[in-house]
Amino acid sequence: MEYISILIEPVLTEKSNVMRDEGRYAFKVDARADKRQIMEAVRRMFQVNPVACNIINVKSKPKRLRNRPGRTSTWKKAIVRLSPGEKIAVFEGA
After folding, report:
1. pLDDT attached to residue 4
2. How far apart are the first and last CA of the chain?
3. CB atoms inside a 10 Å sphere around CB 5
4. Where exactly are the structural domains of the chain?
5. What angle (nearest 5°) sits at the alpha carbon of residue 7, between those of residues 33 and 30?
6. Any bridge partners for residue 53, and if so which?
7. Which of 18, 20, 65, 90 is surrounded by the fewest CB atoms within 10 Å?
8. pLDDT truncated to tens, each residue of the chain (94 aa)?
9. Distance of alpha carbon 25 from alpha carbon 15, whole angstroms
10. What's the CATH code, domain 3-82?
């Protein structure tokens, strides 16, 4: 698996914005990726040194579209902690 295809998109929520101040970043990742692959992908794409990675499998939620019941899809979220003092410039607006 190529490291470019591991990170799908960043998770941008109020909670993830607070986590960024602490040096933790949240990403939506490929369901087949493991912690080592995710940390290597962050290291190569953003030129930073990740220290730890926590993975969460987000379950589907019920939803309705045009009065028909359905569910959202499940996905995998990774929270990556960087070395103290390091930041990802793309998230900081630089």
Report:
1. 86
2. 29
3. 12
4. 3-82
5. 35
6. 80
7. 65
8. 788 899 999 999 999 999 999 999 999 999 999 999 999 999 999 999 999 999 999 999 999 989 999 999 999 999 999 999 999 988 776 5
9. 10
10. 3.30.70.330
